[in-house]
Design a protein that fits this description.
22 helices, about 0% strand, Growth Hormone, Chain: A, globular, mainly alpha
Length: about 450
């Protein structure tokens, strides 16, 4: 994107000859959104089913987002060596295998087996995101790349909302209603009855993931038969990883973008994962009812993303990112210091501020990188590792005791810190990177 590309440009976001490939690849955004948000409530579910701590149950997110972090660079090198389509097919295969591994994991009744299943699944999601994001950016004029990615990303929360609904209706609502204390009492008095409840609950979890695995296999067939266009630079099979990494690490805006993305993903996963614990611990709501508030947050997220995508025609992404990060930080402070439903409403409202952050940081960081964007994309997908490390940290805080604040509310200091980092990146993008002659980050 050049300095001459003013906000409100009339350049087409999606050219006619890219429309069908754009629609097909955009469907993947919903597919991984579904996986993300059917999984978030499982942290609370596994805690109750297996009688483990907040820290231990949050290892679901460690395994889930660890797959993103572990596989991002190998995925990028694979895509560079072969093609975007090959990366998508590999990702769908791993995604389906991970889902279907839930069947033996459930019969083994072993938490570690579920963690492996999540890890394999998200190794596939890492391939999908590393392929789809730069592919979408390349489908047209560079001046509209960030708007194009925001449009595609707008369909991600639709999949997320569907995943939340499935988690609420077909998992959380069907689990045995026995509380954690009741289960511990049953374990001491009748271990066989407790084991029967455990197995029944795990079978409930297995079902939706099995169906998801079959759906992903169907999508795999569609992509295997589809003709996706080769874009500029795909014929260059030379990896040149060392030189590319060198250029990327010297690029301040990219380097800082990876850091900002890690903190953003951490904030998003913490706010969405622990909204259930907040509602349960602070307000006494059941997990199923609490998940309903999570769905409201996602509806707000979806609506805000479409609105902010439009606003990007008129405002610098860096400036808008700064404003949204400030708003998110203030709402998290409300979550920490305001008790009752008002605190929960603040936590729900954070989603409006988060809606634009991932694709905007992504577009800012990759702007003007050319073919380096393939490996650069991997760095940004690795940054999803923020969702791997921060939820267990928040879970550990929730397991502690504090004098002035409940441990649940105190734990949200971590998302607040994340928004501070994002705000710094937003203002630096506009005031420093822009003013120092790096390409303007406008859409």
């Amino acid at each position: 994107m050049s300095d001459s590309q003013a906000p409100g440009s009339r350049t087409k976001v999606i050219a006619a000859h890219f429309l069908l490939p754009f629609i097909l690849v955009t469907s993947l955004f919903s597919l991984w959104g579904f996986a993300n948000d059917i999984t978030n409530p499982m942290v609370a579910a596994f805690k109750n089913i297996l009688l483990i701590s907040n820290f231990e149950s949050s290892l679901v997110q460690f395994a889930f987002y660890g797959g993103y972090c572990f596989m991002a660079i190998p995925a990028a090198l694979f895509i560079k060596r072969f093609s975007y389509k090959a990366g998508i097919l590999t990702g769908l295969t791993l995604y389906a295998v991970g889902c279907l591994l839930f069947i033996p994991s459930g019969h083994m009744m072993a938490f570690w087996a579920f963690l492996i299943s999540y890890f394999v699944m998200t190794c596939g999601l890492s391939f999908l995101e590393t392929s789809a994001n730069p592919y979408i950016l390349s489908m047209g004029d560079e001046s509209t790349a960030t708007r194009r990615l925001n449009l595609a990303q707008a369909f991600n929360p639709l999949g997320s909302l569907t995943g939340m609904f499935v988690a609420k209706t077909f998992i959380l609502a069907r689990l045995d209603p026995a509380t954690e204390n009741e289960r511990r009492t049953l374990l001491e008095g009748d271990p066989q009855a407790f084991t029967a409840i455990q197995q029944s609950d795990l079978n409930v979890i297995i079902g939706p993931y099995t169906v998801l695995g079959l759906v992903v296999l169907g999508v795999l067939v569609v992509f295997a038969l589809a003709k996706l266009p080769k874009l500029a630079g795909e014929d260059d099979k030379e990896l040149n990883a060392g030189a590319t990494i060198g250029r990327l690490t010297r690029n301040k805006r990219y380097r800082e973008g990876v850091i900002a993305q890690a903190f953003y993903v951490g904030a998003q996963i913490m706010c969405w994962t622990f909204i259930i614990q907040y509602a349960a611990n602070e307000l006494g709501l059941t997990n199923a009812v609490a998940q309903g508030y999570n769905m409201i947050a996602m509806i707000i997220f979806v609506s805000s993303r479409f609105i902010c995508t439009y606003i990007l025609k008129y405002f610098s992404p860096g400036r808008l990112l700064f404003g949204l990060a400030v708003g998110g930080g203030l709402l998290v402070l409300g979550t920490i210091f305001i008790q009752g439903m008002a605190g929960l409403y603040c936590l729900i409202g954070v989603s409006a501020c988060m809606s634009l952050m991932f694709p905007t940081i992504y577009g800012i960081a990759l702007d003007g990188l050319g073919d380096d964007a393939k490996l650069g994309s991997a760095g940004l997908i690795m940054a999803i590792g923020g969702g791997c490390l921060m939820p267990p940290m928040q879970g550990w805080i929730m397991d502690q005791q504090f004098e002035l604040l409940s441990s649940t509310r105190a734990s949200f200091i971590l998302p607040f810190i994340c928004f501070v980092v994002i705000a710094i990146y937003g203002i630096r993008t506009y005031r420093i990177h822009h003013e120092h002659g790096e390409q303007a980050v406008r859409v």
